[in-house]
Design a protein that fits this description.
mainly alpha
């Protein structure tokens, strides 16, 4: 199990259903690199960085910035690990 796999798996499922969740937006941000690592990534959502931040701001207010950065760090950790095993 790769670090952050729970987020990526949920995001892929949500993207396939066309849902704009935190996880789907995160996968959309990393779509090209995830594809390069061998994952079957559906069409990403438009403007995922802005949409993710706005969603987090609505849900968490002033904590949005820290949450956004933590999620992106988890995405990058997954990408790096996936690249090592692909």
């Amino acid at each position: 199990m790769l670090p952050g796999a729970d987020l990526i798996s949920a995001g892929l499922d949500d993207l396939r259903r066309g849902e704009a969740t935190v996880e789907a937006l995160l996968v959309s941000i990393g779509a090209s690199r995830l594809r390069a690592a061998g994952l079957d990534v559906p069409e990403p959502l438009p403007e995922p960085e802005l949409s993710l931040y706005e969603l987090l701001r609505r849900e968490h207010g002033d904590d949005a910035h820290g949450r956004y950065n933590a999620l992106v760090r988890r995405l990058v950790s997954f990408q790096r690990a996936a690249e090592c095993v692909s």
